[in-house]
Every structure is written in C-alpha cells, then in structure tokens.
C-alpha cells in the first residue's frame, strides 16, 4: 500500500540510537517510525509510533489521527486484526469521515469474510461521508454474499431515490424484480 509517512513531510536520516523520550520531538519519533516502516521492521515501527503518540498532547487530534492510522496498519501487517481495528476506530473517533480508516476497517472485515460486518461498515461510511454509492455496494453484498434479495432490493430502492437515473442501480433492480 502507498500510505504516506505519518508526518506528511520529508525528513533527514534518523539518529543511530534513540535518545531518551523527553529529548525527542514528535516529528523525530514519527521519522524514526516511518523509517522502520520503510524497512518493514514492524516491531520497531510500532514502538516508535507508540512513543510519538505518548508525547503528542491529547488535544492535538490532527497529529494523533495519522499516528493511530499507522499503528493500525502496523498491527494489520503483524496479523493482529483486532488491534488494527481498535486503532482505526480511534482515527474515526477523531475524524468520523476519515476515508482511509473506513477503508481499512472494511478491508479487515473482508479479509475475515465477515460479510455482515462489511455491510455494517459500509452503512457507517454511507452515513459519515454522505456517500450514496455505498448503497450499491451494500446491495451487492446482500445479494451475492448473504443471499438476501429482499434486503438488496430495499437497499437499491434507497439508492434509486438518492441516485435517480443511475443506470446500474436501475438495471440491478429490474434484474432482481424479474428474478
């Protein structure tokens, strides 16, 4: 995946050894974490991101969200989906519209073949982001993965109301009604 560094800005090479936490700035910790990330050294990346989080004030939500996002991605790469999910949820507590966090949660549920959870998460995206296109994706899951044509039709009817004239929605509705 091509997730940008949590700091969002270029940096110089990190020091060879980590000075005491009090002597390190948030940016320096994030730079160390990003460097470990690039080397796919997930334990080191996690440790540095966690330290960055510890020195970032609770009130600095703008800086905390990308750090939580990176910790979630590290946990995902360490095959710890529950821990990853908790961190992605923390991003959404800070910014309920965060597209990357929503997509990461959906990906975790898809990887676990938890189709009901994917539906629930897509409904959340629909609400948080006002994204009517999620309804077509939800209907697809209801029909193809959960075998619930009735719920798929109801969802597509909602989509038709929000996306009038959408040929894809209309075609799928017709096919389901004719089935």
Walk me through the structure:
- This protein has 179 residues and is mostly helical.
- Helix content is 70%, strand content 0%.
- It has nine helices and no strands.
- Helix 2 (42-55) packs antiparallel against helix 3 and helix 5 (99-111) packs antiparallel against helix 6.
- The two termini are 40 Å apart.
What can be said about this structure in brief?
This protein has helices at 26-38, 42-55, 61-77, 81-94, 99-111, 115-129, 133-145, 149-162, 167-178. With 179 residues, the protein is an all-alpha fold.
Broad shape: elongated
The assigned structural class equals mainly alpha
- Bin the helical content: 55-70%
Q: Unreliable stretches, pLDDT < 50, 5 or more residues?
A: 8-16
User: What string gives the helices and strands in order?
Assistant: HHHHHHHHH
Indicate the radius of gyration in whole angstroms: 20 Å
Residue-averaged pLDDT: 90
Q: How far apart, in Å, are the first and last alpha carbons?
A: 40 Å
Task: Please work out how many helical segments DSSP would assign.
Answer: 9
Quote the beta fraction.
under 5%
The total beta strand count reads 0
- Main sheet, how many strands, which sense, barrel? none
Topology:
Layout: H1 26-38, H2 42-55, H3 61-77, H4 81-94, H5 99-111, H6 115-129, H7 133-145, H8 149-162, H9 167-178
Helix pairs in contact: 1-2, 2-3, 3-4, 4-5, 5-6, 6-7, 7-8, 8-9
């Amino acid at each position: 995946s091509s997730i940008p560094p949590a700091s969002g800005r270029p940096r110089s090479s990190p020091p060879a050894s980590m000075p005491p936490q009090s002597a390190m700035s948030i940016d320096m910790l994030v730079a160390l974490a990003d460097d470990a990330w690039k080397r796919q050294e997930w334990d080191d990346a996690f440790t540095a991101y966690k330290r960055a989080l510890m020195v970032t004030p609770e009130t600095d939500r703008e800086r905390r969200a990308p750090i939580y996002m990176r910790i979630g991605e590290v946990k995902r790469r360490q095959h710890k989906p529950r821990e990853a999910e908790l961190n992605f949820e923390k991003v959404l507590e800070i910014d309920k519209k965060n597209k990357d966090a929503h997509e990461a949660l959906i990906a975790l549920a898809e990887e676990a073949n938890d189709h009901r959870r994917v539906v629930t998460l897509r409904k959340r995206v629909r609400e948080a982001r006002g994204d009517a296109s999620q309804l077509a994706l939800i209907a697809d899951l209801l029909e193809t993965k959960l075998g619930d044509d009735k719920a798929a039709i109801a969802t597509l009817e909602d989509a038709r109301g929000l996306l009038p004239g959408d040929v894809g929605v209309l075609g799928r509705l017709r096919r389901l009604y004719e089935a």
